[in-house]
Specification:
Homodimer. One of its GO terms (cellular component) is cytosol. It is found in: Cytoplasm. The protein is an alpha+beta fold. The chain folds into two domains: 117 residues, Diaminopimelate Epimerase, Chain A, domain 1, CATH 3.10.310; 142 residues, Diaminopimelate Epimerase, Chain A, domain 1, CATH 3.10.310.10. The chain is built from five helices and 19 strands. The chain has a 17-stranded mixed β-sheet that branches. Strands 9-10 form a two-stranded antiparallel ribbon. The chain is globular. The model has no long low-confidence stretch (mean pLDDT 95).
Length: 281
């Protein structure tokens, strides 16, 4: 039996969304890799599986699979997409809660179609990142090529934010994978390079753990704003500009980080069983 899917994106950070709330679905790593492949499958930065909520107060559980088959704890752009999708199912209901393996994420769909997600508190202790050993997360002793001394932030997944003079000039294809697998990060890390271009505006590029270079990363934008504010480079609210567009990020005084931005549905389709069956062998 064919299974329907949606192709959605937030600022070009694209997802294959599968609804398993009524018919359970388990994808092996091999199946996820084929599905995410842009030549042999549908193609995406992450696979999103909607499941019944596991916690009281949640409206949906969102499972996130990377293109390499690994599971991710957070994806801000996908959370906005899922929140918009589920909100549209209930007429007039624009507030809901998306559950992930990293916790509950309250969301609000606005009249203009944008979505704000409370990504939860920024985690800044070295144990929470996590790091391999005690360290000051404001400036880590981590370096590769022209990149050094990142600020570490956990936004449901680990991030290392490197501030540079020109984010466009950094060869992320070379340095991203090296830093993702640096021994300082036992669970690997998302790698951001960021340039503050104005007090309320930051240009950011990202190498995502398990996915590589993407056009946007919601949790990475949140981590970048927190890191910039901690360094005194910006205030607690700024526009984070990525290749696919911009998000408004606010780090509230209570520690929670709010992310606001657009969502889009590109197309819908059906997965032929033979695609996943072939990958299972």
């Amino acid at each position: 039996m064919a299974r329907r899917f949606l192709k959605m994106h937030g600022l070009g950070n694209d997802f294959v969304v599968l609804d398993a709330r009524h018919t359970p679905l388990y994808l092996t790593g091999a199946q996820a890799r084929v599905l995410a492949d842009r030549r042999f499958g549908v193609g995406c930065d992450q696979i999103i599986i909607l499941e019944p909520p596991q916690s009281a107060g949640a409206d949906v559980f969102m499972r996130i699979l990377n293109p390499d088959g690994s599971e991710s704890g957070a994806c801000g752009n996908a959370t906005r997409c899922v929140a918009s999708l589920v909100a549209a199912e209930g007429a007039g209901r624009d507030q809901l809660t998306v559950e992930t393996i990293s916790g509950l994420l309250p969301a609000i769909r606005h009249a203009d179609g944008t979505v704000t997600v409370d990504m939860g508190p920024a985690r800044l202790d070295w144990r929470q990142i996590p790091l391999a050993e005690p360290a000051d997360t404001l400036s880590l002793d981590v370096a590769a090529g022209p990149l050094s001394s990142p600020c570490a932030v956990n936004m449901g997944n680990p991030h290392a934010v490197f501030f540079v003079d020109d984010a466009e000039a950094v060869d992320l294809t070379t340095w991203g994978p090296q830093l993702e697998h640096h021994t300082a990060f036992p669970e690997r890390a998302n790698i951001e390079v960021a340039t503050v271009v104005a007090p309320g505006r930051v240009r950011m590029r990202v190498w995502e753990r398990g996915a590589g270079i993407t056009l946007a990363c919601g949790s990475g934008a949140c981590a970048t704003l927190v890191a910039a504010a901690r360094r005194g480079l910006t205030g607690r609210k700024a526009e984070i500009v990525m290749a696919g567009g911009a998000l408004i990020i606010e780090w509230r005084e209570d520690g929670h980080v709010l992310m606001t931005g657009p969502v889009a549905t590109a197309f819908s389709g059906e997965l032929d069983d033979s695609l996943l069956a072939g990958a299972a062998r």
